[in-house]
Amino acid sequence: MKRIVINNDNLDILNIDETVIRVKALMTNNKGELLIVHNNHTYQFPGGHWKKTESLEETLRREIKEETGITVKIETGPFMVIEEYYDNYLSTGKTRCNKMYYYIVPTNDRPDIKEMSLSGIERETDFKLFYVSVNDMEQFIKESMESHQIENIIGEEMLSVMDEYENYRR
To answer: Which residues of the chain have pLDDT under 50?
Structure first.
């Protein structure tokens, strides 16, 4: 599993006040497409926050079901994790570690709105699902960053994930 650590503040793991863990899925189909979420004014891969009562795979299955209405099997572990360390995270005075685990989840099932269970912010904002060709994804992300449809930090992370995904597929 590829591990990327971003620690510009040179924080020691022992001095972290809080750790937030998320899981994300590169949901691929046999047409060579990836499922993308547009929500809260940005694009991202489906997924969300880990609950302490769940394994990472249980969290990913739950989040995929909530956001897409698709029931999936998680057959392999994460292929990548990105750890980001922050001093004074969002001006809270706290040190924080964000860990994002990325999985490849092949499925030809299509999103089912009747099976989705969106959160309040997802219902109140511009939540949409759509597919982008794997071959077009890098260009899509870069153009979306240029037009401010993806926050730069999310876009840079997505580009790193796509680079590793291409290496993983080889």
So the answer is: none
